[in-house]
Design brief:
Helix content of chain B: 40-55%
Structural class of chain B: alpha+beta
Strand content of chain B: 15-25%
Largest interface: A-B, 35 and 34 residues
Structural class of chain A: mainly alpha
Largest sheet of chain B: 4 strands, antiparallel
Helix content of chain A: over 70%
Number of strands of chain B: 7
Strand order of the largest sheet of chain B: 1-2-3-4
Distance between the termini of chain A: 10 Å
Oligomer: heterodimer
Order of helices and strands of chain A: HH
Radius of gyration of chain B: 24 Å
Number of strands of chain A: 0
Distance between the termini of chain B: 34 Å
Radius of gyration of chain A: 16 Å
Largest sheet of chain A: none
Number of helices of chain A: 2
Strand content of chain A: under 5%
Shape of chain B: elongated
Number of helices of chain B: 7
Shape of chain A: elongated
Chain lengths: 66, 209
């Protein structure tokens, strides 16, 4: 059972890192939009938000599933 | 009709599509690009769209292979080691999908917010989307003497497809390293444009003498 907690912790950390990376991507995208004035296509906005939500849901799922 | 005028019309038809004009207008309005009164933007180009494909192909391949391995891995062997092998597979799949999304979005945004701009006075490379800050490179054509303008293919695949890098080389004293347009969407147009600007600059200098 201890192994299982370690595995869960490993995956939570991996997806948490991906989540932090995605937050940096969002921040950089907002900065790019402000400085250039060129908006991001809606499809990519949705994809960006969906990917962040997926990471969050994944973290919650890994914590909940036992 | 004058063949040069015909060529100019052809170029304008290609490069002044509504989408490009919109980008030019927005860039002119932004505070970053300060144009002189007699300066105008002649060309704004992103990298060729195949560049994103080239950057994404390796992560996509790795992700697909990882997912296939995870899905076809026999559960019986894992059950002997772990009680929740199905969960393990799910976690792995979720991690790979999340990572893939992040990489694909990063590569797309990196391409989307990167421009090579040629104005009547300078060459610019602007990278708006950067996690570690903003990148802006500018070379004033009237301050430097261009020595050579060449097109080189970055690899064999791009050579076959006609996608080239454009190298603008200057005299060693002015700028030792060349200004590189990396795989612009129309390298031929960039080359012609810089060549024309160089000729104009030489004529101006000769007239001043």
């Amino acid at each position: 059972m201890n192994y299982w907690i370690l595995i869960q912790l490993f995956f939570v950390l991996v997806i948490l890192m991906i989540f932090i990376y995605q937050v940096f991507i969002i921040m950089a995208a907002i900065r790019a939009k402000r400085s250039s004035g060129i908006p991001l296509p809606s499809v990519w906005k949705i994809t960006l938000v969906a990917s962040v939500l997926l990471s969050l849901v994944s973290i919650i799922a890994i914590v909940i599933l036992r | 009709m004058d063949p040069r005028l015909l060529e100019q019309n052809r170029i304008e038809r290609i490069h002044h599509t509504p989408q490009t004009s919109e980008v030019v207008k927005r860039l002119e309005d932004s505070n970053l690009i300060k144009l002189l009164p007699d300066e105008k933007i002649l060309s704004v180009q992103r990298q060729h769209w195949l560049v994103i494909f080239g950057r994404m192909i390796f992560p996509l391949f790795v992700a697909v292979v990882a997912l296939i391995i995870a899905l076809i891995l026999p559960l019986d062997n894992l059950y002997a080691l772990l009680p929740n092998a199905l969960y393990l597979k799910t976690f792995f799949t979720l991690s790979v999908i999340c990572l893939l999304f992040a990489v694909v979005i990063y590569e797309y945004l990196s391409w989307y917010y990167q421009f090579y701009i040629v104005t009547s006075r300078c060459l610019m490379h602007i990278h708006f989307f950067r996690i570690g800050g903003f990148f802006f490179e500018e070379v004033f054509l009237d301050q430097m003497m261009q020595q050579e303008i060449t097109r080189r293919a970055p690899n064999l695949f791009f050579d076959v497809l006609g996608i080239y890098d454009v190298y603008v080389e200057f005299s060693q004293l002015d700028r030792p390293e060349p200004f590189i347009f990396k795989s612009p969407s129309d390298s031929q147009y960039i080359e012609d444009l810089v060549e024309n600007l160089t000729i104009e600059e030489i004529k101006k200098k000769e007239a001043q003498k």
